[in-house]
C-alpha cells in the first residue's frame, strides 16, 4: 500500500484494495490462459527476493497469479519501469501500493531504492520483491545491447535471455539483508506457444498465449555470498544456467534438467549423449474466490460512494479535488508515491542508518 495507508487501513482489508491483483486473474478466466509452475513446491518465504528473466511486458503481470496462490499478495512488490506510472488506472494503483519505479539512471534509481526499501525495513514489512536484473524485456534493441556488453566484458553472447546487471541486485540484497531476508528465488519464464510482446499484440487476439510456464528455484539467503563480487558471480552463474534451460525449453516445449541413466522419464536431447528429465510440475489451486470477492467488494464500494457523491455537495468537492490532484501528480508529476509525510521520512532514515551503521 501507499505510505500513509499502513497506518490507517486494517491489514485484513488490504487484499481487497489491491485492484491489479483482482483483474490480473481475469485473463485466466476470459482468455483461457493456463499458468503452470515447475520446480519448487513450497509456499514462498515471507521475506524474499525474486529474480526473473524478462521476455515481454506481461511476465510480472502473469506471475501475480502465482504469488496470489503461493505467496503473500498483500506485501508483493515489483521493481518496474517508471513509465508504468502513466498507464491509466494500473499506474495509479501501483503508486498507491508503493511499488518501486526505476528510470535506468542510477543516480535517480538509487534514491528510489533507498526510499522504498528502507521504508519497508522501517515498518518491518515482510516484503516479497520481484526484480528483473536484465533491465528490460527481450527485444532486438535490448539483445544488441546485451551482445555488446558480452563482447566488451569477454562473456558469451546469450540467445534466449539478456545479460543481467548486478548493481540494482546488489543494492537490494544489502538493503533487505539489513532487515531480514529469508530466501532468493530464481524464476525462469517461458512461453511454449504464442507470445504477446506488447499491449497491441495482446489486443490483436492472435498472440494470446495458451500457457505460461515458470520454473522456480529456491535458495536460502544465508547460503548466498555476502560480498559484492561473490553476489555478482552468483547472479551471472544463474543466468548462464538460465540460458541453457531456455535453450532446452524452446526446443522441447518444457523445462528439463539433467538426470541420471537410471532415472525415470529420461530422454536424449541434442547430440544424444546428455540425458535430461522433465522438471516436476507443481499443481496450483484453481480457486477464483479471491477475484470474485474483490469484484464484489469494489461493486459495493462503487455503489456506496456513488450514493454519497449524489447526496452530499461537500463530498463531491472532495472527490473532485482528490481526483484532479491524483491525475496531475500521478500522470504529469513525479507520482503519488513521491508524496511523503514527515513520519515516513523518519522511518526511512532510521532504517538506512541502521543498515549502514550511521549514527
TrEMBL record:
<feature type="domain" description="Phospholipid/glycerol acyltransferase">
    <location>
        <begin position="48"/>
        <end position="170"/>
    </location>
</feature>
<keyword id="KW-0812">Transmembrane</keyword>
<keyword id="KW-0808">Transferase</keyword>
<comment type="similarity">
    <text>Belongs to the 1-acyl-sn-glycerol-3-phosphate acyltransferase family.</text>
</comment>
<keyword id="KW-0732">Signal</keyword>
<dbReference type="Pfam" id="PF16076">
    <property type="entry name" value="Acyltransf_C"/>
</dbReference>
<dbReference type="GO" id="GO:0005783">
    <property type="term" value="C:endoplasmic reticulum"/>
</dbReference>
<dbReference type="GO" id="GO:0036149">
    <property type="term" value="P:phosphatidylinositol acyl-chain remodeling"/>
</dbReference>
<dbReference type="InterPro" id="IPR032098">
    <property type="entry name" value="Acyltransf_C"/>
</dbReference>
<dbReference type="Pfam" id="PF01553">
    <property type="entry name" value="Acyltransferase"/>
</dbReference>
<dbReference type="GO" id="GO:0016746">
    <property type="term" value="F:acyltransferase activity"/>
</dbReference>
<keyword id="KW-0472">Membrane</keyword>
<keyword id="KW-0012">Acyltransferase</keyword>
<feature type="signal peptide">
    <location>
        <begin position="1"/>
        <end position="18"/>
    </location>
</feature>
<protein>
    <submittedName>
        <fullName>Lysocardiolipin acyltransferase 1</fullName>
    </submittedName>
</protein>
<feature type="transmembrane region" description="Helical">
    <location>
        <begin position="295"/>
        <end position="315"/>
    </location>
</feature>
<keyword id="KW-1133">Transmembrane helix</keyword>
<dbReference type="InterPro" id="IPR002123">
    <property type="entry name" value="Plipid/glycerol_acylTrfase"/>
</dbReference>
